[in-house]
Amino acid sequence: MEAIDLARRIADIASEKQAENIIITDIHDLSSITDYQVVLSTDNQRLARAVFDEVSETLKKEGVRPLRSEGVGADADWLIVDYGPVMVHIFTPAKRNLFDFDRLWPDARTVLALQ
After folding, report:
1. Would you say 36 and 4 are in contact if contact means Cβ atoms under 8 Å apart?
2. Alpha-carbon distance 71 to 62, whole Å?
3. What CATH number has the domain bearing residue 58?
């Protein structure tokens, strides 16, 4: 699966699970770590974990496994899933605002934005 297709698939799965403010950015010219970021918010920690689980399980069935994940504990306000060319950031709104995460890559090209 191409990286952009994977990013869009992740956004679709997250959207179906009630994630909000989903943004895919192309950072391949700006970062040596990944090509695309999928950044999204959920209303609370429990929903963040549910989105993480749904994305992980759905992609696993499709033969795609993450390289690593961080913040997957029960009290997580920010979960990170590394699929290599696609990095996923699942936030509660407060944590996303605290880090002002959407402004970290001002030169990144927005590929998709779903409210």
Report:
1. yes
2. 24
3. 3.30.460.10
Q: What's the total number of domains in the chain?
A: 1
3-state DSSP percent of the chain in helix, strand and coil, to 5: 35, 30, 35
Record the pTM.
Answer: 0.93
31 CB neighbour count, 10 Å cutoff: 13
> pLDDT tens, 46-85?
999 999 999 999 999 999 999 999 988 767 899 999 999 9
Element containing residue 40 per DSSP (H, E) = strand 36-41
Q: Starting from the edge strand earliest in sequence, which strands make up the sheet with 20-26, in order?
A: 68-70, 78-82, 86-91, 36-41, 20-26, 109-114
